[in-house]
Design a protein that fits this description.
mainly alpha; 10 helices
Length: about 240
């Protein structure tokens, strides 16, 4: 399984461009709270971008409470004034790109909670998906192939098993940028990747045995080398206890 990836910069520029065009459309048409936006297909043709890109921009505006999408009905402007909307969009499009360390810190904080929830809430089907992802990762490591996507798909399977839709969404948002950063810095080369196989297996087994505390401890151990890599032994930041 492959993930379609744009670089951080490319994806951010595309999304910001669409967001600004949506704002222009709202202002030009004098649309008000509760008014409906044109369909994704119409916006895609009007802006000259893919429907996927339009959908991602709309989802981002939903995240910040500017738009509301209703199944089978369409996308509507939220109950927010025009001045506030314009100011919020200015802020959204001027947000700085997240750096690698910030992404990894966010991922670790999320996953220490996620793995405990997964151990408590996982179903048999969830366990099968986690095991399949682990097996694919292990196979790539043993054969000496690039294992980054398989590694992260393993973690996404754990996030899905947590049954927390917000955590799952956040993991999906930050994962592509982590893949790009990993690929540049080669965190998982050679012996580092080989040493991680057992740690992945320990995490899987703790989830299998529905032992949340052990699962968290094994996830901490899994991330220890990454903390060493980011901060160095002299500046290593301890993983939070919570």
């Amino acid at each position: 399984m492959k993930l379609e990836i744009l670089t951080k910069h490319e994806n951010r520029e595309i999304q910001n461009g669409i967001i600004l065009k949506i704002r222009e459309l709202i202002n030009y048409k004098n649309l008000e709270p509760g008014d409906k936006l044109p369909a994704e297909r119409v916006l895609s043709e009007k802006f000259g971008v893919s429907r996927t890109s339009v959908r991602e921009a709309i989802q981002k505006l939903e995240f910040y409470g500017i738009l509301n999408s209703k199944p089978q009905s369409g996308t509507f402007i939220a109950d927010i004034g025009q001045v506030a909307m314009n100011g919020m969009i200015d802020d959204i499009t001027s947000l700085e790109e997240q750096d690698f360390i910030s992404l990894v810190e966010t991922r670790i904080l999320l996953e220490l909670k996620t793995v405990k929830l997964a151990a408590l809430r996982r179903t048999d089907e969830d366990l099968k998906r986690i095991k399949l992802a682990f097996d694919a990762y292990k196979k790539k490591v043993i054969s000496g192939e690039d294992c980054l996507e398989e590694d992260l798909l393993f973690h996404l399977a754990i996030a899905a098993a947590s049954k927390n839709s917000t955590i799952n969404t956040l993991m999906l948002l930050i994962t592509p940028e982590i893949i790009v950063a990993y690929d540049i810095d080669r965190v998982c080369d050679g012996d580092v990747a080989l040493s991680e196989v057992k740690k992945h297996e320990d995490i899987y087994m703790a989830i299998r045995d529905q032992n949340p505390n052990l699962a968290k401890e094994k996830m901490k151990l899994h991330f220890s080398k990454l903390y060493d890599y980011i901060y160095g032994e002299d500046r290593k930041i301890k993983i939070p206890k919570g």
